[in-house]
Amino acid sequence: MDISSFPVIISGPSVSGKSYLASQYKGDTLHSSELKREDMYDYLSNIFRDNVILKYSSVYEVIEGEVNNITHTSITLKNNEIESLYTIGSLFKDALIRENINIGDKIRFNISTGKLNKVLEIDYDGEMQKSKNIDSEVSLLTIDNINSNLNPLSLEKISYSVKKISNKNVKSALNNTSTLKLNYLKIEDIHLLSLDELNMLSDLMYEKYIPNLIFTLNTDKLTSEQEKSTLFNKCTTVTLKREDTIKKIVEENNYEENVIQYLKEHPLLLKEVIHCVNYISFDKKRSFDKLIKEFE
User: Fold this and answer.
1) Could you tell me if residue 266 is inside a domain?
2) Which segments constitute the TIP49 P-loop domain (predicted)?
């Protein structure tokens, strides 16, 4: 089953494959129990903006070449027949170690951002230092932190490649050619949230940019009070049936007959069955019939 509209609520009874379906979409996963905190709105707002990514191109001043020699105090780069010797300090040496750069590797040092990285290709034009158009990514949360004049080096969840990005570069990217990438963000078991907490989630939907949200909901545990939340009016709902999910999983995975029979007799142990089948796929000596008894 493919999901094409977001935000979406994957609902169904216990063991109906909600998490299994959500897992097909790669991204961060939060459990509703993690959201029960006094600063829930701000906490979630930051996570939302950390999962909305600005992809942009900017012109940077860079040095790039093929590593010809490395010493404790210098690095020699070559580009075609041209060689240049650069004196390096402790921070640059740390970056060489961190990026696992060796002789023969092609590297690019971004003078504007201080970022050093290994690259697959360089321009063999005989010039070490040049202006170059480089594609970059930065989350909206990072832009928020930079523009609020906080010290980006002290902030968590900011990737090394954008720690030194300037306000000017970010604003230029926002005003020129750029695109937004919306990550998948999964929030499991929202039936554990109170009506107020569900409505807080709903309020966050008014933000201009939000990630592709996937919620899972156990319909067996949803109360009539929780059903009043405005969240449900803002989401597409995908309803799963336990028997349909089991049939689909069996068909997709070509299970042995004894596994299929066990699932028919113990549908509530779907997660345990999947775990056991995955386990014996690595350890051929283990028997499914014996392994599943540990969960009964």
Assistant:
1) yes
2) 26-219
